[in-house]
């Protein structure tokens, strides 16, 4: 197994608590509305949205993926942190044991928020990937 890590940072004018609730707490409702060309629906398969919840993201036809499943490992509304892991999904999981994400939100001086996303990719066997491949995949998803 090869482990590859990548971090990103994003700023938003939206206040931190509101941004966290929208992107994490209401993810399954918000994202299909923001990305209807890519996301057909997001279904809660198990749980109530907190730690242990499993969601299935169903992609629109014609894309590289048909679905992926993720599991929320940590949801801390006090520290505005969410840790989740992709655990299943069509072609993606042929090369990966799992992909883990840790998302943290913090306020900015102007009343907005900064989010930090740390991604950890656990590959199967000795499959190698690099930062350019990950960024290209993210651009296709957006």
Automatic annotation (TrEMBL):
Residues 1-131 form the Bet v I/Major latex protein domain. GO terms for molecular function: abscisic acid binding; protein phosphatase inhibitor activity; signaling receptor activity. CDD domains: Bet_v1-like (cd07816). One of its GO terms (biological process) is abscisic acid-activated signaling pathway. Keywords: Pathogenesis-related protein, Plant defense. It comes from the Eukaryota. GO terms for cellular component: cytoplasm; nucleus. InterPro entries: Bet_v_I/MLP, Bet_v_I_allergen, Plant_def-hormone_signal, START-like_dom_sf. Pfam families: Bet_v_1. Belongs to the BetVI family. This is Bet v I/Major latex protein domain-containing protein.
């Amino acid at each position: 197994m090869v482990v590859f890590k990548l971090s990103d940072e994003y700023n938003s004018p939206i206040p931190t608590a509101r941004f966290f609730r929208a992107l994490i707490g209401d993810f399954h409702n918000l994202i299909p509305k923001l990305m209807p060309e890519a996301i057909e629906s997001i279904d809660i398969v198990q749980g109530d949205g907190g730690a242990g919840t499993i969601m299935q993201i169903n992609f629109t036809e014609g894309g590289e993926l048909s679905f992926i499943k993720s599991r929320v490992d940590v949801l801390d509304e006090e520290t505005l942190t969410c840790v989740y892991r992709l655990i299943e999904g069509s072609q993606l999981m042929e090369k990966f044991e799992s992909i883990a994400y840790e998302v943290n939100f913090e306020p900015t001086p102007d009343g907005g928020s900064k989010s930090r996303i740390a991604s950890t990719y656990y590959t199967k066997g000795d499959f190698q990937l690099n930062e350019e491949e990950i960024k290209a995949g993210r651009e296709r998803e957006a």
